Amino acid sequence: MITETKNTLPKEICDFIDVCLTREHPESYLIAVLHKLQQQFGYLTREHMDEVAQRLHVPASFVSGVATFYHFFRLQPRGKFSISVCLGTACFVKGADKILDAFRAELGVDLAETTKDGLFSLDCTRCLGVCGLAPVVTINDKVYSQVTPQQVPDLINRAKADLETTETKV
Amino acid sequence: MKTIHLTIDDMQVSVPEGTTLMQAAETIGVHIPRLCYLPNLSLEGACRICIVEVAGARTYQASCATKVAEGMIVKTNSPEIRQARRDLVELILDNHPMECQTCDRDGQCELQTLAYSMGVRERLFEGKRKRYEVEDSSFSVIRNSEKCILCRRCVRVCSEVQGVHNLSQLYRGFNTLVAPAHVSPMLESVCINCGQCINVCPTAAFLEKDSTDDVWAALSDPNKHVVVHIAPSIRAAIGEGFGLPAGTPETNRTVTALRRLGFDVVFDTNFGADLTIMEEAHELATRLKSGENLPLITSCSPGWIKFLEHFYPEFIPNTSTCKSPMTMLSVLLKTYYAEKHKLDPKNIYVVSVMPCTAKKFESRRPEHFAPAGYPYTDAVLTTRELVWMIKAYGIDFKHLTPGAFDNPLGFSSGAADIFGTTGGVMEAALRTAAEALTGKPLTELNFTEVRATTGLKEASIKIGDATINVAVANGLNNAKTILEKVKRGEKQFHLIEIMACPGGCIGGGGQPYPSEGRYVLDEEILKLRAGALYNIDEAKNVRKSHENPFVQDLYREYFQHPGSEKAHKLLHTHYTPRSPRGIK
C-alpha cells in the first residue's frame, strides 16, 4: 500500500499554501487554492485535491465536498471541443433546454462532464448578449445561432470532421 | 447564571440563560419531535421537524437551535404546527424508498416511528427519487444512500467524536450525497469501521455488513464443528435488545440462547482477554525495564488500530503487538483446541459475537489468517445481529434458564469482564503488572483512578517504589488529544489505553439501538452497562488474569511463558501504515 501522498503539486501552489498556513484560519483559503489549481490545469484531479488536503490540513472529504459543491470547479479535463449551451432567458424561452437534452443524449454525458474519448465537454452558460440569435450554442470559438435539437448530431459531426481535416493537414 | 422566564404551552418555565427551547420544554415534560438533533453532537438544524411557534416571530423556529429569551411565549402544539411538521415528514418520505417491511431497521427506524406518530398514513407526494447503488465494499460498514435523509448525524459523529472526518456532504441540492472523499468505496477510505455512523443513523443509510446468513449456513452444516465466543461487553448490553433495562447482566442466558441456536461449543472471549493481559503485562514489564518504545499503547480496539495505521503510523512502535482478545481466542481454537480434540482446524467454524463492526474487518486482515489460508475467525456477529438471530429462531430470551460456558476456554477472571468498558484493559493490566513488578499480592484490586467517566483520564499509579503515568482515552478525538500531548513531549506516559468508541466496547458500533426515550451515546446507558461489568468483576473469586487456572495450564502445556517464541508466533501481530493518510 502507498503510504505517502505523491508530491504532484507545482511549487508555486505549495508556496501559496505555506503562506496560507501562516495566516489565521488557513482552512479558509481552500477555495483560493483550488481556484489556482484549476487556473493552471483546467480541472481538479484527485491526486491534487488529496495533496491540498494534506498540506492545508483539511480533511480530504471536506475538500471533495467543496470541489463538488461549486459548479465552477471541474473534476474532469475539458474535451478538445468545449460545447456551451446558452441558458440565458431568451435562449431558454426559445428551447435551449431541449438543445441541452439533445447534447446530453447524443454525447452520453451530463453538464460539466467530458466524453470518454476526450473530444467533447458539455457546459452551459448564461446570456452571451446575442439574444437576437437565440438559441445560441458555442463550440470552442465558433458561435451557432438559432440551433434546433435536430441539428445537434450534425454539429457534433462537423466538429469531428474539423478535427480530421486539421489532423490531416498536420 | 441568569435565569430566564418564559411561557411554553401556557406553562411558566424558568431555565438558565443559554438553554434551548427544546431543552426548556423537556423540563416541563414536553417532548418536541425531532430527527437530526442528537445531544453530544453539534447542532445541525437541518430537518426542521422540531419547529415551534414563537409569539412575534415571522416564521416557525427550530426549537433545537433557538435559545430561550425573557418573556418568550412559545407554543409547541397547534393544528398548524402539527400540520407543518407532518408536511415536513411527508416531504422527507417523498424521496425515501417505500420498503419498510424489507428494511433492516424495520421497527427500529426513527423516521418510521416519526411518520407514525405524525399520523402519516398515506403517501401524498410522489416525486423524483434519488437513486444510488448500495456501497458494500467494506467488511464492516455498508452505505445505502437511497435511505439517507441528510440529517448529517453520521458526518458529525465521524468528525466530532471520532476525528476521522471520513464522511462529508458532497455535491449539492437534490444530488447531495453523504460519502467519503471522491465518493470512494468505504474499503478504500480512511473509514476505521467503528460503526458509530450506524449507531446514530435514524434510518438504514448505514448498516453493518450482515454475517447472519453465513452463520446459519455453518450451523446447519453437519461437517462443521461450530464454536462461538462472546466479547465481555455483550453480556452488559444484549438484554436491551430484548427490552430489558440497560445494565442488566445477561451472561448466562446468552450462553443458553447460543446453545439453542445450535452452536456446538460456547466459549468466552474473556479467556482471550486474560491471555492478552498475560502477554501485554509482560510486554509492559519488558519495555519499562529497557525504557524503549514507551508509552505502550493497547491494541484491543480494531477501530483504534485502523486509526493508528491511517492517522498515527509514527506510534506503531509504541502499540502493543498483542492480537486482540477475539483473535487470540480464535487462534487458540484452531491450534491448541484443535490439537487437543484431534479436530481438523479446517472443519472448525469460529463465530465471535462482538459489540463492534470493526471486528469484522479485523477478522479479514491477512495477518489473522492461518498459514494454510483459512481465517482464524470465520464470522463476526454484532450484538444486534445475535439479538436478531435469537428472535428469528423463536427463542424467548427472557424465559431462558441460565447456562454456563464450556471449559477451559470459557473460564475467565473478573479482570477480563471489565475489558468491555473504558479503563478496563488498563485496570486488568495493572492488576497483573503490579504483582509481577513488585512480587507481592495487591491489597487493593480496584484501580478506581483509571475508571473513566469521561472521554479522557490521566493518572499516576504507584507500583512498589515506582510511579507509572497512565492515560485512558475513548472516542478517537480524545485519543488524538493524548497522542499529540505525547508528541509534544509534555508528559512521559508509560501506558495508554485507547478505545475507539465512546465508553469503550459497551458503546460499540454493533450494540443494540437505544430503546425509546434513550439516545445513542447516552452517558446514562454507558454508565449502566459499565456498572454491570464492574459488578460481575466484583462477584468473581478470581479477579486477576494471571490467576486464571486454565490460563496457567495453557502456559504450562503450550506456550511455556508469556512472550515465548510460540506466543509470539501465534498471539502477536504487526501493523502497517495505510493509505489514504488521515488528516489529523
Notes on the protein architecture:
The complex is a heterodimer of chains A (170) and B (584). Chain A is an alpha+beta fold. Chain A has 2 domains: 11-69, Arc Repressor Mutant, subunit A; 81-169, 3-Layer(aba) Sandwich (Glutaredoxin). Chain A is 47% helix and 11% strand. Chain A is built from 7 helices and 4 strands; from the N terminus they run ααααβααβββα. Chain A has helices at residues 11-22, 30-41, 46-56, 60-69, 89-93, 96-107, 152-169, and strands spanning 81-86, 120-125, 137-139, 142-144. Chain A has a 4-stranded mixed beta sheet with strand order 2-1-3-4, with helices on one face. In chain A, α2 (30-41) runs antiparallel to α3 and α3 packs across α4 (60-69). The model of chain A has no long low-confidence stretch (mean pLDDT 91). Chain B has 584 residues and is α/β, with parallel strands linked by helices. Chain B has 3 domains: 3-77, Roll (Ubiquitin-like (UB roll)), CATH 3.10.20; 141-209, 2-Layer Sandwich (Alpha-Beta Plaits), CATH 3.30.70.20; 213-571, Rossmann fold. Chain B contains 19 helices and 17 strands. In chain B, the strands form 5 sheets. A 5-stranded mixed beta sheet of chain B has the order 2-1-5-3-4, sandwiched between helices. Chain B has a 4-stranded parallel beta sheet with strand order 11-10-13-14, with helices on both faces. Chain B has a 4-stranded mixed beta sheet with strand order 12-17-16-15, sandwiched between helices. In chain B, α2 (79-94) crosses α3 (110-118). Chain B is globular and about 80 Å long. The A-B interface holds A 1-5, 46, 49-50, 53-54, 57-65, 68-69 and B 159, 165-172, 179-183, 190, 313, 576-581, 583-584.
SS-based class of chain B: alpha/beta
Tally of individual domains of chain A: 2
Q: What is the CATH homology-level superfamily of the largest domain in chain A?
A: Glutaredoxin
Major sheet of chain B: size, sense and barrel closure? Answer: 5 strands, mixed
The end-to-end span of chain B amounts to: 36 Å
Principal-axes geometry of chain B comes out as: globular
- Biggest interface found: A-B, 21 and 24 residues
Summarize the amount of helix of chain A as a percent range: 40-55%
How many helical stretches of chain B?
A: 19
Give the assembly state of these chains: heterodimer
Spans of chain A with pLDDT under 50 lasting ≥5 residues? none
